[in-house]
Amino acid sequence: MYKEKFFDKISTSNISERVSGSKDIDGIYSIVDDYVDLGKTIIDKSKGLLEDKKKAFDIINGLDDNMHRIVLIERYFNSEPWKSIDIHISSK
Asked: What is the C-alpha separation between 58 and 34, in angstroms, rounded?
């Protein structure tokens, strides 16, 4: 009974007005598709960057000099400013 009342209220003129009143649905779908593709691209690039970061970290950890490791990790992995690194290594 509820469905019948609901469908009685919708006239075909209302539906056609809504469809003709919607602007460039294909354009909206295109934007959504581009957005999804961009999300996939970002994820793929992020994976590559994480792999590169791990390689760099492995190389730095392979250094013999502990002070070099500290400086490089603090600066390039922890984004510490040089002033902070200077204070950190001066206290050792």
From this structure: 36
Element of type H or E holding 79 = none
Q: Which two tokens stand for residue 73?
A: 């990790």
Model's pTM, two decimal places? 0.54
Token duo for residue 77: 């992995």
Rounded distance between C-alpha atoms, residue 34 and residue 43, angstroms: 14
One-letter amino acid at 79 equals S
Q: Is there a contact between 76 and 70 (Cβ–Cβ < 8 Å)?
A: no
**Residue 39 carries which DSSP code?**
H
Residue range 40-62, pLDDT digits in tens: 999 999 999 999 999 999 999 99
Residue for token pair 């056609």: 16
Interatomic CA distance for residues 36 and 34, integer angstroms: 5
For tokens 């919708």, the residue is 10
Instruction: Name the nearest CA neighbour of 61 among 70, 52, 49.
Output: 70
